[in-house]
Amino acid sequence: MTNEHPPAVLSIAGSDSGGGAGIQADLKAFAASGVHGMTAITAITAQNTVGVSRIDQVAPSMIVEQVRAVVDDIGIDAVKVGMLGSVETIDAVVEALGLVGDAPVVVDPVMVAESGAVLLDPEARGTLVERLLPLASVATPNLAEARELTGLDEGASQEELARAVQALGPDAVVVTGGHSEDGADLFFDGQEAVSIPGPRHPDGASHGSGCTHSSALAAGLALGESPLEAARWARQLAAAAVAAGLAGIGAGSGPVDALGIVERSPLAGRIAPGTGSGIIQP
To answer: 125 in helix, strand or coil?
Structure first.
């Protein structure tokens, strides 16, 4: 028996019943990155690839207790924060982060689901900016989220957005470029702005791509990578997950596949692709 083990990374985020985004995507990204994944659930969503029909927030005290339970026994090497939903939940997460010591924190300021459903109350956005972003080692907004956080308009460049978000308190920012012309991410740490290019896969499945990116970045930090190198790894894994995405699952944007589950399956070639039924071909 050895005491050696992979780093342990905690996702504080919502649950997606369709398995494409939220903590479900986070755990897959953690596994693909070679770390042990743990969760503190902030909200339970009734969700599939086409929409979100219901959101139930988890009691703030339960959010804190989930984190405390993990800290007391396992320890935390990095944290990813995703869907929050409400002011009360943000307050609970800020309290919970006081338990994790100096573990780096990646904040993905989730506001809207891939389907368009609103996942953060409008009145909670100011609280996120004022209380949570200053605790972040890295924040990972997409272009729309960066505009919402900063108040800058469509004319602002990706670098201008990154600089403006970083001025709100996080040590570093990655403005993801999935909706930009060239698809590159933009990293800024207060000193240098670095473009992180990578392939685009417009025909892939993208539900959960943002969750995958931020979780892979947190995993990279837990493994000892610099924020920039962790951001490069996150770009690589997110792109691969979209390329391998399960486009046949659901009527909307299918879930990303960070694990390459079809290729890895011992039943590969016998599973009817896209059926969602588990039918095995003879």
So the answer is: helix
The strand ranges marked E within the chain are 8-16, 36-47, 52-57, 78-81, 105-107, 138-139, 172-175, 185-188, 193-196
Between CA 270 and CA 256 the distance in angstroms is 21
Q: Report the chain's terminal Cα–Cα distance, integer Å.
A: 42
pLDDT tens, position by position, 148-179? 999 999 999 999 999 999 999 999 999 999 76
**Structure-block tokens of residue 19:** 């398995």
pLDDT in tens, 96-153: 999 999 999 999 999 987 777 788 998 999 999 999 999 999 999 999 999 999 999 9
Non-local (6+) Cβ contacts of 269 within 8 A are none
3-state secondary structure of 171: coil
CA–CA separation, 122 vs 137, rounded Å? 24
